[in-house]
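REQUEST FORM: STRUCTURE PREDICTION
Request ID: SP-0412
Submitted by: Lab K.M.
Chain count: 1
Length (residues): 134
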Amino acid sequence: MKETLFKPLHWIMLILISIDFIDTCYRISYGYFSGQGIQPPVGGFNVQISMIDFIVSVIIQLGTAYAIYMLYNMQKKGGYYFIVLNIIFILYGFILGPFASVPAGETIPLIIGYFTIYMILVIGIPYFYSDKYE
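STATUS: Completed
RESULT:
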């Protein structure tokens, strides 16, 4: 049973994190270039980003794309890179970046939910199938 579930779980993981990656890239790019700001998937607020915030986001998103590529190539460390890059993005956003003005009560449950899903997908699946991943 474990062997038959590997391919579907691996592809579900890749598809879900790729959709999230594309959505994040679109929100950041559209929000910056349109001047309307970024609206998170849940929440009734917009966040305006500066050019520095946009550059930092692009660099982090490039790293995230590489982490997804590593997971595609069955490298377990891609999941760790993915989590670390998302933590850096959140820390930058709340300490130096545009999320400092957003009420924490509106974003903390969303962040906890996303990181729970991320941990299950990019750490849990490679750990459960550690014989398949490098």
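NOTES: The CA atoms of residues 87 and 115 lie 9 Å apart.
Reviewed by: T.R.
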